[in-house]
Amino acid sequence: MLLSRLRRITFFDFALVLGFTALAAFMSLPIIFILNHAFKPTNELFLFPPRFFVQNPTFSNFEQLFLHATNATVPFSRYVFNSVVVVTMTLVSVIVVSTMAAYVLAKYRFHFKQIILSMITLSLMFAPETVGIPRYLIISGIHLNNTYLGHVLPALASPIAVFMLVGFISQIPNELLEAAKIDGASHVGIFARIVLPLSVPAIATISIFTFQGVWGDVETSTLFMQDETMRTLAFYVNSLLSGLQNSVAAQNVAAAAGLLMFIPNLIIFLLFQRKVLETMIHSGIK
Amino acid sequence: MGSITFNHVFKQYKGESRPAVNDFHLSIEEGEFLVLVGPSGCGKSTTLRMLAGLEEISDGELYIDDKFVNYVSPKDRDIAMVFQNYALYPNLTVYENIALGLKLRKTAKYDIELRVNRVAKILEISHLLDRKPSQLSGGQKQRVALGRAIAREPQVFLMDEPLSNLDAKLRAQTRAEIIKLQSDLKRTMVYVTHDQVEAMTMGTRIVVMKDGVIQQVAPPRQLYDEPSNLFVAGFIGSPQMNFVNGTVTLEEGSYFFSNKRMKLLIPRRYDDQFKRMDRSVRNVVLGVRPEHVILKAEEADDEERGFVSSSVQMTEVTGADSYVYVNVGESKIIARTDPGITYRKDDKPAIGFNMAKIHFFDENTGASLAIGGDEG
């Protein structure tokens, strides 16, 4: 049986697999580089021509990072803590707000719905830089400088998340919601029991990019946080990389920090990737 | 318990000139199996959805159990609905699907378990309770959807074309089960379908609708034997009733139906009806069902009254019967015949009608001219 299956592989199949394997290998180069780079001793980091793979792996970069961090005015762990708090709060609130908004926009009829939808689409077109100043005015206007809410609020209104979820939720058959209505579910009940569980694939998707956006974001730390203790890990790593401190000497520290910044992204992606691929939406309907 | 009254109910969608449901006025008795039937877009589903509370009523009043329910939300109407695409919650197991309605009504946990298991036993889905809807076949999903409705033990069951996604064999089987279920539960059931066979076999009373207007409300037999207008006559019955245009004339005290090809003596029972009409020639449509068309293999004998020659176009053999499509002049007529006699294309059998079973309709209004058959 195995043989018969093998025989069915055509040249086209072979070429396809080969092509995609090559593409996947190419796409994974940066990941492999980050992994290698973090373990390179200083002499390999500055080697010319640069080497891709590490020759003599060492943990000294991480030691340096923690040494550097413990010597700094704000401990490294504080940045990590801030990042975790901000990311968690943002993720939860973006998911809650976006799914609720998307559910209403997708399934209810009300005045000015089209205008609201167009405004959401329109706001997708603004580059983040253009809203920097208005955002600063709002945040300082309501005295959210140096608070966690100052990190969360700008990311909370996520047009791309709402936009994606509206598309997804409008595919949920109306009959499901009507069945729930007749079964006795309230608006909140329908949302929590039917819409939310069915939107999991879309929520996973928006979680990935919201996480990546917030985890790597330095804007809120730079603009709204004057207090160093309120800044995030991304800001700290960025400051190492962008030469705010000694750029040559800190290269090894930056390499290690780069890996640390990358790993949560990878974990989140692997965690949610399965959900994204799951298409469960049509399973209850013929 | 479970009676429903529609009091001149209208549904008008914004931006549409014609109401989707136009003056729906009907009382449904407790325990009745009422079928709403009509072509797509006739307003039957809209009527059902208004009854369920999923559509607002534009005008008129709706009563369930003599309670005014126009503004009562679906969950408080004590109804259950089965949807065409089953609408099972894909994220819940079969058990949870059936139990959700009870859970939301704060039924005690042991009671939920009892009821779900009982319903599962009735519908023979006990072995499926742990599965998700995606793991079920179409027929099984249909049973779960029925189970979800039954478990709540509502006063009124609403069904929106629940069988149209099933294959023919399963449909016939489920149809019989729903009939049995309704007679066991003795609950009011309102059933929407576009399939006239379903309507005829299931309903204790049938409402035929067209363009949002009720055409006729009658038990199946009466609907078949005494259609109130051309639309009902053509819609109910398969193959459909044959229609022949012609005029009614009075000769020597007897009424005759005639056109270019035929001249038929009209039975006496129509006399009163025609007497009431004006004296002049009147255009009518003669309707006759395929089983009341008589074919004679030999050529038409001009002497023999009521028989004319025809020309066979094609023959359809269904097994028990065969249907012969013939042309008589410009009229196309279908006749049900004994499958033992084969007609070939261009055969010229003589054709006549069983005059005791014919119908007459006003050509202009489409209304039936039969005595008492016209309910408006």
How would you describe the overall organization of this protein?
The complex is a heterodimer of chains A (286) and B (376). With 286 residues, chain A is mostly helical. Chain A has two domains: 2-62, no CATH class; 74-277, Orthogonal Bundle (MetI-like fold), CATH 1.10.3720. Helices cover 71% and strands 0% of the residues of chain A. Chain A is built from 16 helices and no strands. Chain A has helices at 2-7, 11-27, 29-38, 42-45, 60-71, 76-107, 113-123, 132-141, 148-156, 159-169, 174-183, 187-198, 200-215, 219-224, 233-241, 251-277. In chain A, helix 6 (76-107) runs parallel beside helix 9 and helix 6 packs antiparallel against helix 13 (200-215). The two termini of chain A are 34 Å apart. Chain B is of the alpha+beta class. Chain B folds into two domains: 4-231, 3-Layer(aba) Sandwich (Rossmann fold), CATH 3.40.50; 242-362, OB fold (Dihydrolipoamide Acetyltransferase, E2P). Chain B has nine helices and 21 strands. Chain B has helices spanning 44-52, 94-104, 109-122, 138-151, 168-185, 196-202, 220-225, 230-235, 271-276; strands at 4-11, 21-28, 33-37, 59-64, 67-68, 79-82, 156-160, 188-193, 205-210, 213-218, 242-251, 254-258, 263-265, 282-288, 293-296, 308-309, 311-317, 322-328, 331-337, 350-353, 359-362. In chain B, the strands form five sheets. In chain B, strands 6-7-8-3-9-10 form a six-stranded mixed beta sheet, with helices on both faces. In chain B, strands 13-12-11-14-21 form a five-stranded antiparallel beta sheet. A four-stranded antiparallel beta sheet of chain B has the order 2-1-4-5, covered by helices on one side. Chain B is elongated. The interface between A and B is medium-sized, with 23 and 30 residues.
